[in-house]
Each structure stands twice: as C-alpha cells, then as structure tokens.
Amino acid sequence: MTSKFLTEVQQKVVVLGDFSVGKSSLILRVSKNEFLEEQESTIGAAFINFSVNVDNKPNQIQIWDTAGQEKFRSLTPIYYRGAIGAIVVYDVSREYSFQTAKEWVEELKEKANPKLIIALCANKIDLLEEKKKLLKEKEYADENGLLIYETSAKTGKGVTEMFVDFSKNLPKDQGREIFNDDFFEEEFFNIELHNGEKKTEKTICC
Amino acid sequence: MDEIESKMTKELKLEFLKTLPSPPKKNKAEELLESESLLNVIEEEEKEIPKSEWFSRVLKKHPSVLETRERVTPLTNQISFGKLISRSKTEVQQHISNQVLLNLIMQHLETLNLGDTIKTIEKESGISYNEHYSKKSRLLTILRVGIKDIDSVWDLNLKYQGPQIENDQEDPEVEIFDNYGLGEFDDEDDEENRIPDIDIWDEPPDSDNNVCYIEENNKKILKAATLNKLIENLTNEKKSDTDFMKIFLMTCQSFTTPRKLLRKLLQRYNVPRGNLTLEKYQEKKQKIQIKVCNVLISWIKDYFSDFNESLINEINNFIENAEKTNSHIMSIKKLKGTLAKAISGQSTRFHNISYETAPLPIVPKNIFSPSLDFDLVDEEEIARQMTIIDFEIYSKIKPAELLNLAWSKPKLKHRSKNVICLIHRFNDVSNWVASSIIRIDRIKKRAKQVIRFVKIAEYLRNLNNYNSLMSVLAGLTMSAVHRLKFTKEEIPKRYNDIIESLSDLMSTKDSYKASRDALKTSNPPCIPYLGIFLTDLTFIEEGNNDFTDGLINFYKRNLIAKVIKDVQIFQQKRYNFMPVMQISKFLSNFDNFDSDVLYEKSLLLEPRKCSRSEIN
Lengths: 206, 616
Description:
heterodimer; A: 206 residues; alpha/beta; disordered N terminus; Ras guanine nucleotide exchange factor i-related (chain B); Ras_GEF_dom_sf (chain B); LisH (chain B); Ras-like_Gua-exchang_fac_N (chain B)
C-alpha cells in the first residue's frame, strides 16, 4: 500500500453532470490536445491522465468521467470518493440541466470530501445568445464558492483553459493523501484521514 | 376529452346491445318495444352488477368490442396521455372537436387501408369522413410534432422516483410509448422527408459521392456510403460478406428505419432489365433476388422485433406476389417458413441449454412456511437467485437498445426497456443493501449484516455476476453506509480484505481495466457490468459523426457493433439454477428507504462527532 502511495502521486478529478450535457465531448476534446500523455483508446476513455506544470512542477491529473452511466445513480459516490476536484457540467441551452448541476453540487458538499474543489462548467456556450451573461449562474457559483468556466466542446473554446486553470487551483499537497483508486480505502482503512475529516468538520462548525 | 370517453362508453353500450341475439323480424313498433325492454333488462342487470365490472363483462361477452377498443386506444387514453404530456396546455381542447379528432383517426386508418373500420366509425358516430389529400397519416404527423418537445416534459414530470421497477414491470415512460405505439414512428426521422429518395436502381455507379472505402490490415473496408450503396453491397450478386450483413442488421436502426429498409430491399428485388441480354438478365436477377431473400431471412430470424404488423403485411404481400410470378420458389418458400415461425413465436435463436441437472437450491427447512425469515436464507442461494433475475433482464437486451445512446435520451428511451430495467435493478439492489444495513439499530447486528453482504458479493464474484457485484459494492459505498466508521471497526479484517480485493476488481481505474481483464478470462455464464459497455458506446457515439460528407458513416457502426457483440456473447449461455420463488420474492420486491432517509437514519445511528461508547 505504502509504496503505491509513494509512486503514484496523482490527483483525481471527477466530471459529473446530467446526461448529454457534453461530458464525454469535453473529455474527447481535451484528449485531442497536445498535453495528453496517454490514452487507452477512444473506446472506453473513461478517464485520462495529463500533467500540467504548476510552479515548474508537473502535476499529474486524472480525469474520471461518468459518461453513459449517469443513470447508475447508486454508483456515483464511487466516482467522487477520493477525488480532490469535481467539475460539474451543465448545458446552457437546457435550463433543467442547471437544476441537476445544483443537486450535484449539494450532494458533493454534503457527502463528499469536505476539501473538494468544485467547479461549475457552463458548456455549449456556442448555443448561447451573445447578450446572456450567465448572471444567475455566476451568482450561484459565488455564493457557493465554486469556480466557474464557460466552454464549448464543439468549438473547443475554453476547454483546455478550463482543465489547466482548474488543475492550478487544486491543493498541491493533497494528491498523495487522497489519491486512491479504491473506494473504501480513504475512510475505511486509512486512519489518518479519519482525523483529517474530523478537523475539517470542526472548522465548518466554527 | 371527457366527452369523448363518455361517448365511447355509450357507443360500446350500443355495440353491446347489437351483439345480443336478435329476435325474428318484427315490425318497427315491435322492434322498438323489444329494444326498449332489452335496455330494461340490461339496466336491471346493471343494478346487480357493480358498475366497475360492467365494462369488463362487455369485453368478455363480445370480443369484437375489445377489438374495436384496441383499434382506437389512443382515443380512450387521450385524457391521461394529455395530462401527462402537457398539464398546462388545455387550450387545445377547444380546437379539437370530436369531429376533428375522429376525422384525424379515420384518416390515419385510411393510410392503414382499414376502410371497413372507417365505415363502422362513420356509422356509429354519425360523423362523416372528409377525405384528405395527404397520403401520410396526419395524426402521426401531429403527434410527431408533439413529441418533439417531449425532452423537457420528461425532464420535468417523469423523473424516475424511487425503486419501483420489478422484474417485468416496465419503466412508466417505456410503457406509455408502447401503449401508444409511438415507438413505431418516432424514428421515421425528418431525414426521410428531407432527403429526396433515389430509387436504388437509379443510384449512380460508385464514386466519391456515394461510397468511400479505407484500407485496414490489407482489407478494403467500406467506410461510408449512401443507403442505396450499403444495400447494394448487402445484396451484391458478385460477393458475399456475412460480417457486413451482421453489422448492418445489428445497427441499421441507427441510420434508417425498418420500414425504409424493407422498401429498399423490395426495390432491390425488382431488378430492371436495362440493356442486358435476356440470358444475362435472368442470371443477374436470380442472384440478386436470392440475396435479397437471404437478407430478409436473417433479418427476420435475428431481429423479429423490428417488424410491426404493417411490415409483416408488406412482406406477406411480397411473398404472395413472388409466388405468383413463380420466381426462385425455394428462397421464397424459406422466407415464408421463417416468417411463419417467427410469428408463431418459435425462437429461431439457439439458446445454450444445459443438460446437466441444476444444483439443488440451498434452502432453510421452513422454506414453505409463510413466516420464512429472509435472514436465514443462505448467502450463496441469495446470490444465485439474484443472478437468475439479472440474467433474465440482461439476456433480453436487444441491439437496438444500445444504438444512438437511446437509454439516456428521453425521446428514444422506449427503445431501451431492458437496459433501463437493468439499470433500475442495479440501483434498487444498491439501495436494498444500504437499507438492509441502516435498518438495524444495534451496531453488532449491523456489522453482521455488512458481513452478510460481503459474503453475497463474494458469491456473486464466483458466479461471474459482475453487474450485481458492482451494485452490492455500490450499496456498501453509499454515503449513508460509508460513514458508519464504528460499524466498520466491528468487521473482522478478512472481510475487509475481501471488500478490498473485490473493489480492486471492479475499480474504475484505467477504464475498468481489471474488470475487463477478468471478463476476458471468465467462462460463461457471466453477466458483465453493463455500465462499461454504455460508457464505450457513449464515447464512440460522441467521438464519431453519424454522417461523413453526407454519407452514412459505416465505420462508426463497425465500432458500435463490436461493443454490441460483446454484450451478446454473454447472453448466449444461461445459468443453470433453479428459481426458488419464496426467495426471489424477497429479491424482487424491496422495501427500500429513500436515499435522503437513508442518510438521516445513518446520522441517527452514528451521529457526527460521537464516540464509540455512545453507540449500542
């Protein structure tokens, strides 16, 4: 176990959202970009790795995608457990998907790692009228301490920028502590983390 | 709409009257008296029979009423359908009078060549049918326009709530679509109307404009083509390519409709002579016609569910005509036989039946007692019974369910009923696991319950039931269970080790690499975790265009067919277990908590920041 933690210092980022908001398109778009290190194949690219230089240090990011499996609701904790970042995607042309995004944010805030960095991604902005400025969404992001990005997986606008900027916002010291691919380890087996969790709960209460 | 319903009932009443044995001819006055008294008889009977049973009695007594009713189902169900589709939009009522509606229906019936039914409706309703210039059903067109906006409606009104889906219970949305036969026409895209149809024999010869090949492993592969060219290739008189045919038939619903495909095949059957010599023409004609028949035979054999009544009629007409012209009697005979078999419901598909005797179920002594305690049922038997239920659903998944990401799209959902059923089953099982644990108040007993599920998970693993294994693990990982750290401390290490190794196996890491590898080495019977396939399909669908330069991207269908084949491999071999009704009853009717309730209860069991000593 220990050696695994020492050798693989990666940060897990999960991409969540309603069906057909463009999650897989975002992943496909970013995977076609240069900084992609490896990719299994276009088939089953359920997650990809890439590294971003932050302060001249490479930062390994692992993106986990739930594309195609949105309806397996009971499975989603497995996805976000152990993640240090979550990107909640919604489709600006579908009001309903923003509601779902809000539900996601609430669930993450209540049940996921309290230190989780959450970003709201307004996708398909190519379908948006110029004048609309996503005021309501920005306000919501502000209130809830979320990062917010505007992207278009179709044109590629803002996609790479989002992933790079988001990685930069992830706490650098957390990769080792939290990364694991196993959904039980974190709190189930790792006692250190129990303490960690308690601490944060305290700060929330104060 | 209410009016229509009551009118219908009145009409049915009349129909009922008519069906009673009629007395010998009498004069008009007598007749009138007679019918009056008949009415009285009925009314008297009515008094005795509760009104709710009245209708079913009519249907029972006279099947023709049932038939009429079935033909006009959309009419009788209109109200509930309307309420469901558009709660706020009532203004339409004022625009659609009975007359308009009945005319729409009659026009629809005309497109189906049901002239007698139209006459009957005219007679009974007193509304005469105004013929319409359009040869297409206007009713369908209007409904089609209606369901265009359906996305948002499903989103708002029909979010799946809680565990309701049992074994053969269907998704409410699926059911609605089935009831209204909407599934039949939704896929007749606008495509069909927009692109002018070229007769297959007028299609120009191969060029970059209609067909495109690529080289792969020294093999020439058809990459993209027009529908005509694809069908030409399918029925090519010079070469035979069964792989191509399999992929084509498996995925055809993603680029055409069964109706259009059938029309094209029949078009292809009618080979024109052109400027060929009689001899050459005969030869070419015969070869192509045999090919067309072969395609039809395979299609009917493997995908009979693609065919609705009117398509079957079309094939029957075709067979009749072909028999008259006496061409290739063998092929036509075979086609006729295949069709008859398929209609009579005989499965033409070979199912691997095991001749070994099934292992004896492990049951508690009081298995027949009504007070059978589920907690006493052996974990292995639970895993077996779960597997029987899962396989039943999994084995029913049809290729069309996996096309166009239908399971996730409100408009296409009705196509994927087994996929959706399996997903609901998955969530229900996870919920059941969590609920069963949370339900127990005392920590020691609760820990035992966790252990019980770990054992079940292990048995599921040994049975190669990865779908339920994943679902049970998800149940153990649900936030409500996951946070019970003191309960977990009560669990012996070796069970934790089992969880760990099973979780490694089902890990989403490297795109489910561990699970994929395990699947490759598993001997069927086996139930893979469906989600992996759904993710793969999502990436193929999103990463490739349906059309390239106006041609059907067949390469994409190749990729999709590969995934579908993987799904099918494991549908072939069944599990050889005996179903035990007393146990499966518990497993198909869960009494689950809502996920919010689960979490609240979990907080009560082990409150935040409490110490071990505070918990019993």
